[in-house]
Give the backbone structure.
Amino acid sequence: MERPEQGGTLKDGLLLGIPVKVVIEGQEVTELTDGEKAAAVRAGGVKIFAVSVMDAFRYEDMGALTTLIKYPADVVLEGDMVYRVEDAAQLEEIGAEKIFTEELKTAVRSVNLYELKADGDGSYVMGQEEGGCRVIFEADEDNDRGFSIRSIEGPIQTNTVG
């Protein structure tokens, strides 16, 4: 389907699981806009959002990752190096090589989506428990997907003596 000359206002392109409104007159698309957020989409949206996170890490897609985060956000890497990112540009400055480490990619991709449940504070953890490689996301009414990443945490470095 071709995008209409005028009237196309999709903010993030066509995303799986996100409703859109398409108006076809004759054989032409005359309007293409984000649809209304539906409760059913949000309910199933946890898994859809988690798949988006997995894909961003699988393909090391910094552009996709920047759209999944609610700013400001914390990125904890290299043991205890904490980056407070205020926008997508600051996240990109950190660099894909520091964020998409093998440990973090493996932790995110190994999540069983059927076992993904909200913690007591309503957040979802993709990856290891406290102190491990993980991505934490939560409901976000301001994001078209219904959720946003709140923090990314890389591997903890341990130093041995001796």
User: Anything to note?
Assistant: The first strand starts at residue 20 and ends at 25. The two ends are 65 Å apart (CA to CA). The chain is about 30% helix and 30% strand.
